[in-house]
Amino acid sequence: MRITDIREVAVPLRGDITNSVVNFAEHTVSLVAVQTDVRRDGGPLTGIAFNSIGRHAQGGILRERMIPRLLAADPDALLDPSTGLLSPARVLGCTMRDEKPGGHGDRAAAASAVELAVWDLLAKHNDEPAHATIARAFGRRPMTGGVPVYAAGGYYHPDDSLDRLRDELTGYADRGYRTVKIKIGGMPLPEDVARVEAAIEVIGGGDGVAVDANGRFDRDQALAYAAALAGLGLRWYEEPADPLDYALHKELTEAYPGAIATGENLFSFQDVRNLLAYGGVRPDRDIFQMDAGLSYGLTEYARMLDVMESRDVDRSQAFPHGGHLINLHIVAGLGLGGCESYPGVFEPFGGYSPDCRLSDGLVHPGQAPGFGLEAKPGLGDEIANLLKELG
Ligand code: MG
Predict the structure, then answer these.
(1) Per-residue pLDDT of the chain (391 residues; tens, 9 = 90+)
(2) Known catalytic membership, residue 181
(3) By the 8 A CB rule, do 232 and 263 touch?
(4) Could you tell me the maximum CA-CA distance found in the chain, to the nearest angstrom?
(5) Relative to the CA of 187, which of 13, 31, 125, 197 has its CA 20 to 30 Å away?
(6) How far does the centroid of ligand 1 lie from the alpha carbon of residue 238, in Å?
(7) What's the CA-to-centroid distance between 215 and ligand 1, angstroms?
(8) 3-state SS of 296-347?
(9) CA 370–ligand 1 middle distance (angstroms)
């Protein structure tokens, strides 16, 4: 198996919505195709993936550094000697040639798009859904009874109101979601608490509602929200403060009795190890949201899980950030706690394809080979356009 070409295109996210820090109207995502010399169904076997959501497309890093390194590499050096197929870890290692350690920023997302495309390619080579390939690679059995899923919505909209929020969350409940997440930190505390109470009313209990501050708060704000939310029995309180401020995170875990979630902005296993060492994490409740699509791909994500488990945090407490098909297959393949969904938000990447079934809080992945991205309306068209660029 040889890589014959790699292409990237920046695809705009659709949605003029806002959390407490970011407006997504100008966000983009890198869609990547890795083409090989293996023939399948009359054409070259090609892996497709993207770099999750929320960190912009990374075409510059890919085109100027990572893709040239891969195309110039000794083809055999990229293969798993035991299979003769591309090795995600070796491909990742090649993309990182001549890169200094540490400082895990945008390049982590760039590398992840390529590494994840290799997983899609391997699953297509096996003619099976990606969760089956992932499970086998890590010595596990894929989840077959459905994957717990929550609807991540409750963003701040232009002309927002409590009624609009209630209507949105009622729609999620009607579609089969039992847990939702809404944003906080974009309004004064009393108005945010009113939003949370409206969500609890719609869902029927605090344990079905998570809140996400997206790292917005300083110490005083984070503690004030912790006090205001503490009695509501929420599913979790997500990213109250800066994701790298482990000392403050520790202080918050001592002040807030419920679960605190974080990790979506940690891009390396060393960062996760530091969170566990210094962040006051409570192994019996806290939630980890690292996202393979933002953090060098599944190879690095698996190292993060190893670090978690070495500190007695069960993988059922891993709920990766990023509600899309790639993470659905990763969660199902690795037996994690559950996944996020962005129903009707962040198209064409957010949400699942029509062959995924949702019922009673569980989503069942489809059986298309790979991540099944081609079957997702809108995304399939973007993939078809990208494939036309390949030789
Ligand atoms: Mg979040």
Answers:
(1) 999 999 999 999 987 788 888 888 899 999 999 999 999 989 999 999 999 999 999 999 999 999 999 999 999 999 999 999 999 999 999 999 999 999 999 999 999 999 999 999 999 999 999 999 999 999 999 998 999 999 999 999 888 999 999 999 999 999 999 999 999 999 999 999 999 999 999 999 999 999 999 999 999 999 999 999 999 999 999 999 999 999 999 999 999 999 999 999 999 999 999 999 999 999 999 999 999 999 999 999 999 999 999 999 999 999 999 999 999 999 999 999 999 998 888 899 998 999 999 999 999 999 999 999 999 999 999 999 999 988 6
(2) no
(3) no
(4) 61
(5) 13
(6) 6
(7) 8
(8) CCHHHHHHHHHHHHHCCCCHHHECCCCCEHHHHHHHHHHCCCCEEECCCCCE
(9) 26
Q: How far is the CA of 212 from the centre of ligand 1 (A)?
A: 6
CA 138 – CA 302 distance, rounded (Å): 9
| 0.85 surpassed by pTM | yes
| CA 260 to centroid of ligand 1, rounded, Å | 11
Dist. CA 237 → ligand 1 center (Å): 10
CB 235 within 8 A of CB 179: yes
Query: Which of 125, 131, 321, 376 is the catalytic position?
Result: 321
Peptide bond into 369 cis (omega under 30): no
Residue type, 116: L
Q: Report yes or no: 33 and 116 within 8 Å, Cβ to Cβ.
A: no
**Taking ligand 1, which is a single-atom ion, which protein residues have CB atoms under 5 Å away?**
212
User: Which residue is associated with the tokens 């081609």?
Assistant: 374
Residue in the structure block whose two tokens are 């999620």: 172
Which position among 124, 181, 183, 249 bears the catalytic label?
183
- In angstroms, the CA 77 to CA 74 distance is 5
Edge-first strand listing for the sheet containing 43-50: 3-12, 28-40, 43-50
Catalytic residue list contains 183: yes
Strand partners, 181: 152, 210
